[in-house]
Design a protein that fits this description.
Blueprint (H helix, E strand, L loop, with lengths): L6 E4 L4 H9 L3 E4 L22 H22 L7 E10 L2 E3 L5 H11 L3 E11 L4 E12 L4 H8 L21 E5 L2 H5 L3 H10 L6
Parallel strand pairs: 1-2, 1-3
Antiparallel strand pairs: 3-4, 3-5, 5-6, 6-7
Helix pairs in contact: 3-4
């Protein structure tokens, strides 16, 4: 495979994924997909009936990357690898997405309190000669949260754009008793797996 320039398209609105790509020296241009509007999202994040969390997160990430790659072709953009990702939190087989309001956020944190849950982040890369995805799974154990702690956290802006209603890189770090997995994966972009995919797509990395 011919090496490509050290620049990609990032099909994600997440500021955390931007920070993590910069951390490993990957230059990128944003290629944002529509998530709302009269025509609906470019890629639906609805869960299919009976769909397992591992299947769900991989499917959504791959569909985002595939849609973005088709957009590059249609609009005749410079051809570079495109990266997309999706993160979900699961406990007891249930998928916890982004809470729509304070009540949903508080309910999620009550469910996670004092227990171990899984954070699944799937990364998908699509280029001229390559298409694939990898899913990283981390176990995260929360300490027991008081109702006052839950209310105080949900009064901030942190829970509402994050799967499971919390961000480990913010105030919710105080809740985390133990991690078994990838810290960057819990943030939304597992760097070891991401680098592996980008190399497969021809990107020159250390």
């Amino acid at each position: 495979m011919k090496p490509v320039e050290k620049k990609i398209y990032l099909a994600s609105k997440s500021p955390r994924r931007r920070e993590l790509l910069r951390q490993i020296g990957v230059d990128f241009e944003l290629l944002l997909l529509r998530s709302e509007g009269t025509r609906g999202p470019d890629v639906s994040e609805d869960v299919f009936a009976g769909e397992e969390p591992l299947v769900y997160v991989g499917r959504v990430a791959q569909e985002k990357a595939d849609f973005a790659w088709d957009m590059i072709q249609r609009r005749r953009f410079v051809q570079r690898p495109v990266l997309a990702a999706d993160t979900t939190v699961t406990i007891d087989g249930d998928i916890l997405g982004k809470p729509a309001n304070v009540n949903e956020a508080m309910a999620m944190l009550r469910k996670l309190s004092g227990r171990t849950h899984q954070v699944l982040t799937s990364v998908a890369v699509h280029s001229q000669d390559f298409s694939g995805h990898i899913t990283q799974v981390s176990d995260v154990r929360f300490g027991t949260l008081t109702e006052a702690e839950i209310k105080a956290y949900c009064a901030t802006t942190e829970p509402y754009d994050k799967a499971g209603g919390y961000g480990i890189q913010g105030l919710a770090a105080l809740f985390v008793e133990h991690i078994d997995g990838s810290h960057s994966g819990i943030m939304g972009l597992p760097l070891f797996e991401t680098a592996s995919l980008l190399r497969q797509a021809g990107l020159k990395l250390p």
